[in-house]
Write a sequence for this structure.
């Protein structure tokens, strides 16, 4: 590993401030439709904010390879549109009432309109990407979308059931880490747009960074869902358990708990409620078996693997920023 220093949060956001602002404007521009309800829903979702970590990763990947093409702004908007579309559909599937501390879009406009608005955002993202006239970009985005949909369907099949770690990691790769991976790969593609597949320097390396970072990100998300409060999360705490989802800390406790511990967890997953077993009861089980610490240690190991994958990347201020991101992912509180 090189001895290059890790950037600070202030340095990273100052470095990317103009580009992130340009992506925000591009996202808003691309979300305009002659059908007012589409624009209304899109504007509501944009105003809800979010970390914008996927476009941030695409920018850092591209600029670490000296890319100054405006494609970085267009595709930054594309990955955020795809992410936003998945959130709309997830809220409908999960019957969520809040998102980032505000009513979810489906509680305002209803499921039917939001399904269609999510579909429209998907198609608009592909329409924008098509403008790059690059088959590798379309190949990455099509494969990504298939994996995300497969991940959602697999998760629906497993709701209320016990799963093992292998199944869990397959799910979170499809639902989260795949988009992180593709965001990084897209940066490498636009840095060398005319190169053939397999001949772009660092595409696979940067993709592996994105994969490891995305796994860390989702594990931390799942831990926060269990341990943070409603106000910090901007949605009800322990939503995953209420929806019948077994995440890493829960799987760890199931494998190590007493018969009574396992029965309590099974009960919550089957009931999809805390009517017979409380959230506090579950947290006591998880902390007693070191399951929260185990999940966080696993997230930190993936974050470190992401950092290590950058060893051969040219040393510049964008690499320093990429080295900062894993620490941000594992230390956040929401």
């Amino acid at each position: 590993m090189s001895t290059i220093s890790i950037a600070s949060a202030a340095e990273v956001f100052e470095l990317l401030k103009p580009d992130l602002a340009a992506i925000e404007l591009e996202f808003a521009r691309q979300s305009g439709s002659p059908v007012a309800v589409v624009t209304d829903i899109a504007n509501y979702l944009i105003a809800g904010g979010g970390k914008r970590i996927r476009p941030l990763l695409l920018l850092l990947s591209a600029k670490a390879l000296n890319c100054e093409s405006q494609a970085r702004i267009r595709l930054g908007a594309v990955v955020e549109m795809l992410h936003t579309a998945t959130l709309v559909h997830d809220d409908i599937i999960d019957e969520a009432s809040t998102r980032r501390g505000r009513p979810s879009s489906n509680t305002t406009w209803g499921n039917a309109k939001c399904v269609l608005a999510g579909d429209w955002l998907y198609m608009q993202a592909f329409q924008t990407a098509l403008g790059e006239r690059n088959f590798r970009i379309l190949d990455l985005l099509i494969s990504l979308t298939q994996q995300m949909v497969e991940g959602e369907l697999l998760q629906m099949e497993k709701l209320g059931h016990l799963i093992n770690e292998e199944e869990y990691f397959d799910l979170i790769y499809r639902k989260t880490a795949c988009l992180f991976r593709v965001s990084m790969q897209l940066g490498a593609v636009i840095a060398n747009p005319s190169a053939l597949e397999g001949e772009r320097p660092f595409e696979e390396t940067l993709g592996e960074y994105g994969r490891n970072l995305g796994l860390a990100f989702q594990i931390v998300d799942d831990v926060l869902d269990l341990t943070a409060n409603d106000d910090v999360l901007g949605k009800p705490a322990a939503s995953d358990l209420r929806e019948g989802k077994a995440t890493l800390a829960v799987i760890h406790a199931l494998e190590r708990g007493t018969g009574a511990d396992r029965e309590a967890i099974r009960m919550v997953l089957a009931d999809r409620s805390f009517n017979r077993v409380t959230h506090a009861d579950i947290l006591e089980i998880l902390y007693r078996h070191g399951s929260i610490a185990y999940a966080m240690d696993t997230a930190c190991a993936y974050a470190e693997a992401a950092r290590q994958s950058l060893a051969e990347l040219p040393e510049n201020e964008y690499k320093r920023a990429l080295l900062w991101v894993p620490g941000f992912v594992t230390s956040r509180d929401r």
